[in-house]
Amino acid sequence: MTVRPTETIQNAAMRLRLKSVGALIVSNDGITLDGLITERAISDGVAVHGSGIGSLHVSDLMVTGVLTCTPNDSIADAARLMTDRRLRHLPVMDGGRLVGIVSVGDILKYRLDEVMLEAHVLQDVALAQR
After folding, report:
1. What is the pLDDT at residue 13?
2. Which of 8, 16, 34, 99 could serve as 26's disulfide partner, Cβ 3.0–4.6 Å?
3. Residues 115, 88: one domain?
4. Any idea what the CATH number is for the domain that residue 89 is in?
């Protein structure tokens, strides 16, 4: 999900709410990455700008210099980067082209599925040894 830098914060906040996500990728063309607009950036913006925040542009509050990963990076590498840098969202870029975004929730779901599979395998091994 992307949003243009010229859209208002009010529109971006409505999209975050409707889609139940914590961040939108900011992009003029849906291909390149200009930044991220996050719930945290909007919250910080309310503290600074008060009730006039809704009419600001996304570009006024977006996070720039966003760290990214590639489709070839492992889940462990993405999780490590997100943990070390305290990131909740990590855009996925492939040769300068935006191809997706990974969230902390995505990483957690993947790891939970992995742990559950391991538990089932161990349980099957234990039952087979009886």
Report:
1. 96
2. 34
3. yes
4. 3.10.580.10
Same-domain check for residues 58 and 85: no
| Residues 26-34: contacts with CB under 8 Å, at least 24 apart | 26/2, 26/58, 26/59, 26/62, 27/2, 27/3, 27/98, 28/4, 30/2, 30/98, 31/97, 31/98, 32/96, 32/97, 32/98, 33/66, 33/68, 33/91, 33/93, 33/98, 34/5, 34/59, 34/62, 34/64
118 has pLDDT over 80:
no
| pTM of the shown model | 0.82
Domain boundary among 23, 46, 66: 66
Indicate whether 22 and 41 sit together in one domain: yes
Residues 19 and 53 in one domain: yes
